[in-house]
Write a structure and sequence with these properties.
With about 475 residues, the chain is α+β, with helices and mostly antiparallel strands. About 35% of the residues lie in helices and about 15% in strands. The protein is built from 14 helices and 13 strands. A hairpin with a 3-residue loop joins strand 4 and strand 5. It is globular, with a radius of gyration of 21 Å. The model has no long low-confidence stretch (mean pLDDT about 95).
């Protein structure tokens, strides 16, 4: 392994410390990252829009005094605008769209000192729990290239797992940070609604369920990055309670004896027929393994789940989600002066768009009211429990192409995708923080994530618990096949 590969599996804080101590320059880090990307990305297809020359120019200039000065980073090619770089959202409809401004989140990422080396692969409009857009082709899971890395932040998760970058941007409207974190064996936090700024032009798109953050290798990176980017923008429609102290200070702090509920059954408010959705034996095992680990760490753990009306909540979540996607597509159509047609989109995207644009205003507002009531119901559950423990997914990483089996019936595929992500969407419609933690690898050597959901506004407890789990069951030394 070359001296430059020594950087590959350091976390972002460690890389920033090297730059700060002048043991390495930002340009050396950037060049080392570019070399790894050029060597490994052909097998992964994780980076779809390289920004190498721009990154080198930033590295050679004066860096801002942020906590991650000089550290390489990737943006997910959905929602995050980087001025002068194409933003496709994984869609041929936007293949030539180049924004003339940075999103507020990107402004804060740059202010933190991160150097953006490219845009990461994502499914069209971030709609799928796999990363296989027609525009860019499939992203491959670094643990097994025949498998999906998950989605929609699949390119980001694959890049972090393979050691291309220590952390990468992700966003989450139904599990899109946690799903690929589980599939790729890395750490993924979905923050509280309103914790990070949303793009002002698209904040109402999925504002009730969509959040921004990142996929990281270490717990401390996720906490420190959230410190650097969080805080409501004046244009945001939602607000999160300010933390009592920096999130990084929670890493290593004693979580105390937590009261943890767990379940391995799909919650009834995910789908009306939730009891018919099977959960893979390994996804069940990961929860029982985590239950035992949490007990050994001194926490109280018992089986329980929140209750809600499955028919109402499932339909309401779908209505809000589909309407939001339709709004985004229509806004882009106005922006670039083109009329959306079915041939310009993948079948599943068009099915969602068509459903969303035909929702009535009263149905949309009624759906929001249902989700707000469900959130209040779940708040009562969290009055008793500090954390809710579930599988991240109902299945192991699926083979690439598994969700393309019925192109003539997109809703059949959409429903199947939803079954796989049955555990993640809850935290989106309630706005609660949630994380996928890589505690378990099965007999085939595949990572299987464990999800922990916290109280609204309480990322602090999750970071304390995550750091405790990371210390008890370290994962940083586990490297996938596509990483050397």
């Amino acid at each position: 392994m070359s001296r430059r590969d020594d950087f590959a599996f350091m976390d972002a804080i460690a890389q920033a410390q090297l730059v700060r101590r002048r043991e390495v320059t930002a340009l050396e880090l950037v060049d080392a990252t570019i070399q790894r990307m050029e060597r490994l990305n052909p097998a992964l297809n994780a980076v779809v829009t390289p920004m190498y020359e721009q990154a080198r120019a930033v590295a050679m200039d004066k860096l801002p005094p942020g906590p991650f000065a000089g550290v390489p980073f990737l943006l997910k090619d959905v929602i995050a605008f980087c001025r002068g770089t194409r933003s496709t959202w994984g869609s041929a409809f936007l293949r030539d769209f180049v924004p003339d401004r940075d999103s507020e989140l990107v402004v804060r990422l740059k202010r933190a000192g991160l150097i953006i080396l490219g845009m990461a692969n994502a499914p069209e409009f971030g709609l799928r729990p796999t990363t296989e857009s027609r525009l860019f082709g499939p992203c491959h899971n670094p643990w097994n290239v025949a498998l999906s890395p998950g989605g929609s932040s699949g390119g980001s998760a694959a890049a972090v797992a393979a050691g291309l970058v220590p952390m990468a941007h992700g966003n989450d409207a139904g599990g899109s940070i946690r799903i690929p974190a589980s599939c790729c064996g890395v750490f993924g936090v979905k923050p509280t609604r309103g914790r990070n700024p949303l793009d002002p032009d698209y904040c109402h798109m999925l504002g009730a369920v969509w959040v921004e953050h990142a996929i990281t290798r270490s717990v401390r990176d996720s906490a420190a990055l959230l410190d650097a980017t969080s805080g409501t923008d004046i244009r945001d429609p939602y607000w999160a309670p300010p933390p009592k102290r920096p999130f990084l200070h929670e890493v290593g702090a004693d979580p105390g004896k937590l009261n943890i509920a767990f379940t391995v059954a799909v919650p009834p408010f995910v789908r009306p027929d939730a009891d018919s959705i099977s959960v893979h034996a390994d996804c069940v095992s990961v929860v029982h393994d985590a239950v035992q680990l949490c007990k050994e760490l001194g926490h109280h753990v018992e089986e329980s789940m929140p209750a809600a009306d499955g028919d109402l909540v499932a339909n309401a979540f779908g209505n809000v989600f589909f309407t939001g996607i339709a709004l985004a597509i229509d806004r882009f159509a106005l922006l670039i002066g083109r009329t959306p047609t079915p041939k310009q989109y993948e079948p599943q995207t068009w099915a969602v768009y068509d459903m969303g644009r035909n929702q009535s205003i009263s149905a949309f507002l009624s759906s929001l009211a249902v989700l707000q009531q469900a959130s209040r119901d779940i708040d009562r559950f969290f009055a008793k429990y500090d954390v809710w423990l579930t599988p991240t997914l109902t299945t192991l990483p699926v083979p690439l192409g598994a969700f393309n089996s019925a192109p003539e019936n997109p809703w059949q595929v959409i429903m199947h995708q939803g079954e796989c992500a049955s555990f993640t969407g809850v935290a989106n419609f309630t706005g609660q923080p949630a994380m996928s933690v890589p505690l378990y690898w099965n007999r085939e050597g595949l990572p299987v994530g464990t999800q922990f959901v916290g109280r609204y506004g309480d990322e602090a407890t999750l970071f304390r618990l995550a750091a405790q789990l990371e210390k008890a069951r370290p994962w940083s030394s586990r490297h996938p096949a596509i990483s050397a």
